[in-house]
Design brief:
The complex is a heterodimer of chains A (444) and B (383). Chain A is built from 16 helices and 8 strands. Chain A is of the alpha/beta class. Chain A has a 4-stranded parallel beta sheet with strand order 2-1-3-4, with helices on both faces. A 4-stranded parallel beta sheet of chain A has the order 6-5-7-8, with helices on both faces. In chain A, helix 4 crosses helix 5, helix 5 runs parallel beside helix 6 and helix 8 runs parallel beside helix 10. The longest helix of chain A is centred in the middle third of the chain and has 26 residues. Chain A is globular and about 65 Å long. Helices cover 50% and strands 13% of the residues of chain B. In chain B, the strands form 2 sheets. A 4-stranded parallel beta sheet of chain B has the order 2-1-3-4, sandwiched between helices. In chain B, helix 1 packs across helix 8, helix 7 packs parallel to helix 9 and helix 13 packs across helix 15. The chains are: A alpha/beta (444), B alpha/beta (383).
C-alpha cells in the first residue's frame, strides 16, 4: 500500500488558491502583449506610483524583479547570472538585476525570447519604468539595460524623508506635490510615446478599485493579530502579488474579499494556521522561494509566522491631508506606503528606532515572541537594517532574533538544515525572554 | 599647527582630525558630513567647520558588524566603526544626504548610534527634472530652518553669497592645482594630490585656500620630489578613495595618475556655484545638475551611444585635456552605484580609443598585491 502523503503542518487558506490564476493571467498578458505588438513596459515594483497610469493607458507592465523569482525557482537564473558576469557586471549586484542583464543579453543575441525562458519569457519592452522607491540603486540597473534595449527609460521620484521629518505635514505636502508634478510629466511622456491620451475616467475607476484593495488587504492582515494567528506568512507571500501588481483589477478585489471572509471565520472560530501555536514570529525579508517547505518543519514545532516584512504590505488607511486630485491621490498613497510606520510611531508615542520602526511597531501590536531574519546576499536594501532591527527588538522589547542567510536568486546560499538545527536553541531563547517580558509587566 | 603647503597637507592627511580637534579646542564647532552632496556653503555660513566623515582602509572593523551586515559598503561600515570607537567625538552636528541607497540608510543608523546634538538629512532627488530643483530647494529651506533652530542664528542671504564666493575660490584653486598635472611629467603626483584633497576636507575653507595657494607656489618651484616622466598617464575613476595606497600602488609602476573622477577628488570640488538672487537656487543647480556622479539619473536620449556621451562626455574631456592614455575604473566591492556603470563606461572609452580596465577592491590595505599584477598587465597593453 502506498504510503499516505504526509499532511503539511501549515493549514493554508483555501481562498489563497484563487490567487494563482490571477498571477498566471498577469504573466500571460505580458507574453500576449509582446506577441500582438501592444506596448509593454519593463517596470520595477513602484509601490503603485506608475502601474495604474500604465494600465489606464493600456500598457502591459512586466516586472523583472518578479521574473527573477520565477527564474530562480526554475533554476535558469544561475545561467543568466553567469552571462551577466561575462558581460562585465560585478557579481555583487542585485540578483534580480543580474538575472535580467543575463536574460537581456541572451534575448538580444537570439532576437527573440531565449529558449528555455520560463513562463513565456519577458516580451521586448516599449519603454522601461524605474522607481526611486526603497531601493534606489534599481534605476542604475534599468539604465544599464539601455545597452540592450534602445527604448526610453523613465524614472519616478520617491522622496525619502528623514525619520525626524515623518510627523511634519508640511514636509509631506512638498513631497507629495513633487511626486504629483512628476506623474504629470510621466503621463505627458506616455502620451507622446504612445500617441494617445490618458482616459482619466478609466484612471479614476482603477484608482477607486485600488483603494478598496488596499483596505481589504490591510484588514486581512489586521485580523492576523488574533491569537492564535489565523493566517501564516506562506499565505501572505502567495497573496501579496495581486495587491502589488494588480490592485487596479476588480478581480483582485473580489479574491481578497473572499480571503477576508475566510480569515475572519477562522478568527471567530479560533482556528490557527499551525497545529499548536507556541511562538508568534515575524519573518523579515523575502522568503527562500525555493525552500518554502522549511516553514512546515517550523510549524510542526509550533512556530507561527504571523507577520512579515512591511515593505510588501499594503499601506494602512490614509492619514495624510490632501485633496482629491487624481495624481495627488496616487502620489499620496505611494508616499504613505513609505512614511506610515514612522507616522504611527509618532502618533503612538513609540521611540524612534530608524529602519527598525516597522518591526518595533508590529512586534508590540502582534505580540511577537521572536524575529527570524533572512539577509539576502545580493540585496543590500533588504539586508541593511536587519541586524539593527534584531538589536532594537532585543534591547527595547526583550524579543530575541535569529538569522538565516539566503538570497533572492542564488539558491545555493540558503541552508535549511543548519537553520533547523538552530531551532531548539532559539526556542529556549524565546522562552527565556517571555519570562523577562512578563517580569517587566508586559502581557505576552 | 605650523606646517605649510605640502607638509601641512601631509600632516593632516596622516591624522585627519588633527586640525579640527585643534579648532574645536579653541571653541569652533565642527559639522560632520558624508559624500559630496551636503551644501557646505550653508554649514560655513553658520560658522561651523565642515569635516568629511570617511572610513579607514587600515583599521579592521571590529564594532560596526554588530550593527550592519558585511555585504554593505565597506567604507560606510568603517565610518560607523570609527564612530563607535569614539574617533569623531569632536563633531557637534551631522549633515547626512540621500546620495546612494546605503548612504541614506547609513546616515540614520549613524545618528542612531552616535546621537549627535544636531542631525539633518538632506533628501537629494536622483532625477534632475525641472521640478526636482524646486524639490531640492525646499529641502535646503528645511535644512536652513533646522540649522537656524539649532544654533539660534539666522542665515543671512548676503552672508550665504559671501560663503559661496569663498567656496568657489577654493574650487578655482583646486582646478588650478589639478592643472599642474597636465604637463608631462606632472608637477604633482596622484597620491600627493589625493593627500591634499583629503586634507582639504578636514579644515576650514579659507585655510584650505591658503594651503592650496602655498602648494601651487611650492610645487612650481620645487626641484626634488617631482614625479618623473613615465609611459602611462592615467585617469582614475570611481568610488571614494580615503587613503593613497591604491594610487601609490598604481604609481609605483610605469605610470603617473594625472587626473581623476572620484568622490574625494574632482567630483567634490569641480563645479562652481552660480550666485543667483536667491542663493538656494544656485546651490540646488550645482549640487543636483552640475556635480557629476553616477548617483544622479541622466535622461535617456535617442540612442545608448548618446546616453553614454551625456553621462561620460565630461570624463572624455578630462582625458583629452590631461592627455590621458589609460583609464582605471576602480570601485570598492558592494558599491552598486559604480558597479552598474562599469560595462557602459568601459565600452564608451573602448569605442573612443582609450583603454580602460575595471579594478574592484575590498577597501583594505592587505589585498593590493593581486591588483598590482592586474594594473601591470594593463600598462603593458597600453604603453
Amino acid at each position: 500500500m502506498a504510503e499516505e502523503k504526509k499532511k503539511r503542518a501549515i493549514t493554508r487558506l483555501e481562498s489563497s488558491a484563487l490567487v494563482r490564476p490571477l498571477v498566471n493571467k498577469m504573466y500571460m498578458e505580458g507574453a500576449a502583449a509582446g506577441m500582438e505588438g501592444r506596448p509593454v513596459a519593463w517596470s520595477m515594483v513602484n509601490w503603485w506610483e506608475g502601474d495604474i497610469i500604465m494600465r489606464a493607458m493600456d500598457v502591459t507592465p512586466v516586472y523583472p524583479e518578479n521574473y527573477g523569482t520565477v527564474c530562480a525557482s526554475d533554476g535558469i537564473a544561475q545561467k543568466y547570472m553567469g552571462v551577466s558576469a561575462a558581460e562585465g557586471f560585478p557579481t555583487h549586484l542585485c540578483g534580480y538585476a543580474q538575472n535580467t542583464l543575463g536574460y537581456s543579453t541572451e534575448m538580444k543575441k537570439a532576437g527573440q525570447v531565449p529558449e528555455g525562458a520560463p513562463m513565456g519569457g519577458m516580451a521586448k519592452p516599449t519603454f522601461m519604468l524605474c522607481s526611486e522607491g526603497f531601493c534606489d540603486a534599481r534605476y542604475k540597473w534599468f539604465q544599464s539595460l539601455r545597452q540592450f534595449w534602445n527604448v526610453p527609460v523613465w524614472t519616478l521620484p520617491f522622496p525619502h524623508p528623514a525619520y525626524a521629518d515623518l510627523s511634519l505635514q508640511d514636509v509631506h505636502k512638498v513631497n507629495v506635490e513633487y511626486m504629483a508634478v512628476e506623474l504629470k510629466g510621466f503621463i505627458e511622456f506616455l502620451e507622446k510615446l504612445l500617441g494617445k491620451k490618458l482616459d482619466r475616467d478609466k484612471l479614476k475607476m482603477m484608482l477607486d478599485n485600488q483603494e478598496k484593495v488596499f483596505k481589504v488587504w490591510w484588514d486581512i492582515n489586521e485580523l492576523r493579530k488574533a491569537r492564535p494567528g489565523p493566517m501564516h506568512a506562506r499565505d501572505f507571500w502567495t497573496m501579496m502579488v495581486p495587491c502589488y501588481y494588480l490592485a487596479y483589477d476588480p478581480e483582485t478585489l473580489a479574491v481578497y474579499q473572499q480571503v477576508y471572509n475566510e480569515v475572519k471565520t477562522r478568527v471567530e472560530a479560533g482556528i490557527s494556521a499551525v497545529p499548536e501555536e507556541k511562538y508568534r514570529l515575524i519573518f523579515s525579508e523575502l522568503p527562500p522561494w525555493h525552500s518554502l517547505g522549511f516553514f512546515d518543519k517550523l510549524a510542526e514545532r509550533g512556530w507561527n509566522f504571523v507577520t512579515e516584512s512591511p515593505g510588501y504590505h499594503p499601506p494602512p488607511p490614509m492619514e495624510l491631508n490632501g485633496g482629491g486630485d487624481l495624481l495627488q491621490r496616487i502620489a499620496r498613497w505611494t508616499y504613505w506606503s513609505y512614511v506610515n510606520t514612522g507616522y504611527r510611531a509618532a502618533k503612538m508615542g513609540y521611540p524612534t528606532v530608524g529602519g527598525a520602526q516597522p518591526y518595533y511597531n508590529w512586534a508590540l501590536e502582534y505580540k511577537i515572541d521572536g524575529i527570524l531574519t533572512h539577509p539576502l546576499v545580493t540585496c543590500r536594501t533588504a539586508t541593511f537594517w536587519l541586524t539593527h532591527s534584531m538589536n532594537v527588538l532585543r534591547d527595547k522589547l526583550d524579543i530575541p532574533g535569529m538569522s538565516i542567510q539566503g538570497d533572492i536568486v542564488d539558491l545555493t546560499v540558503f541552508d535549511a538544515a543548519t537553520a533547523l538545527n538552530q531551532a531548539p536553541a532559539f526556542e529556549e531563547s524565546m522562552e527565556h525572554f517571555r519570562q523577562v517580558r512578563k517580569s517587566k509587566g508586559l502581557d505576552w | 599647527m605650523t606646517a605649510k603647503g605640502l607638509a601641512k597637507a601631509k600632516e593632516i592627511y596622516a591624522k585627519r582630525d588633527l586640525r579640527v580637534r585643534e579648532l574645536n579646542a579653541q571653541g569652533k564647532k565642527i559639522m560632520g558630513y558624508v559624500c559630496a552632496y551636503p551644501t557646505l556653503e550653508m554649514v560655513t555660513a553658520m560658522d561651523y567647520v565642515p569635516f568629511k566623515i570617511l572610513g579607514s582602509m587600515d583599521e579592521p572593523i571590529t564594532k560596526a558588524d554588530t550593527q550592519v551586515p558585511t555585504i554593505i559598503c565597506p567604507m560606510l561600515r568603517s565610518m560607523l566603526d570609527l564612530g563607535m570607537k569614539g574617533k569623531v567625538d569632536f563633531i557637534e552636528g551631522f549633515l547626512g544626504a540621500h546620495t546612494c541607497d546605503c548612504t541614506e540608510k547609513f546616515c540614520h543608523l549613524y545618528q542612531y548610534n552616535m546621537e549627535f546634538p544636531y542631525y539633518h538629512f538632506l533628501d537629494v532627488p536622483h532625477i534632475a527634472h525641472e521640478a526636482s530643483f524646486g524639490f531640492l530647494k525646499s529641502g535646503l529651506q528645511l535644512l536652513q530652518k533646522t540649522l537656524e533652530k539649532h544654533t539660534g542664528k539666522k542665515i543671512d542671504t548676503d552672508r550665504l553669497k559671501e560663503e559661496i564666493k569663498k567656496h568657489n575660490a577654493l574650487r578655482a584653486l583646486v582646478r588650478e592645482l589639478y592643472g599642474l598635472r597636465k604637463q608631462d611629467p606632472p608637477l604633482l603626483s596622484g597620491s600627493e594630490n589625493l593627500q591634499i584633497m583629503l586634507a582639504l576636507m578636514a579644515m576650514p575653507i579659507e585655510e584650505g585656500s591658503e594651503m592650496v595657494r602655498d602648494i601651487i607656489a611650492e610645487v612650481k618651484e620645487r626641484k626634488v620630489g617631482r614625479p618623473v616622466k613615465k609611459a602611462g598617464r592615467l585617469l582614475l575613476w570611481g568610488s571614494p578613495l580615503t587613503e593613497t595606497s591604491i594610487v601609490e600602488m598604481i604609481e609605483s609602476l610605469n605610470d603617473n595618475v594625472v587626473m581623476d573622477d572620484i568622490c574625494t577628488g574632482t567630483r567634490h570640488f569641480w563645479p562652481d556655484v552660480e550666485i543667483t538672487p536667491d542663493p538656494l537656487d544656485g546651490l540646488a543647480k550645482r549640487y543636483l545638475n552640475d556635480l557629476k556622479c553616477p548617483r544622479t539619473f541622466r535622461e535617456t536620449t535617442a540612442s545608448f551611444e548618446e546616453d553614454q556621451e551625456a553621462r561620460f562626455g565630461y570624463i572624455r574631456d578630462y582625458a583629452k585635456d590631461w592627455n590621458v592614455n589609460g583609464i582605471i575604473l576602480q570601485s570598492m566591492k558592494y558599491c552598486d552605484t559604480h558597479g552598474y556603470e562599469v560595462p557602459a563606461i568601459k565600452a564608451y572609452f573602448d569605442r573612443i580609443g582609450i583603454p580602460a580596465m575595471y579594478l574592484e577592491h575590498e577597501y583594505t590595505m592587505v589585498a593590493l598585491a593581486p591588483l598590482k599584477t592586474r594594473v601591470e598587465a594593463f600598462l603593458e597593453m597600453i604603453v
